[in-house]
Design brief:
Length: about 80
Amino acid sequence: MNEPSTLRMLVDAHGLILSAGTAARVLGFSSTDALRLARSRGRLQIPMFRVDGRRGWFASTRDVAQWLDQATTATKASEA
């Protein structure tokens, strides 16, 4: 079966950058505040950045997709 990649699905749904709110949902955080807290404590393994002229923090869709792929691969490997 030819499944679409994580990156392709995220880009199709959200574009090339994710707002903090979208990143929080995609990464499974309970809220944007939970994402912010993880970031401030150095526990967020995805770089976030600011965009001139826009409020808030953003993440690269590619970085989020790579993290998701690595996390699910590691989970599948530990279950085998």
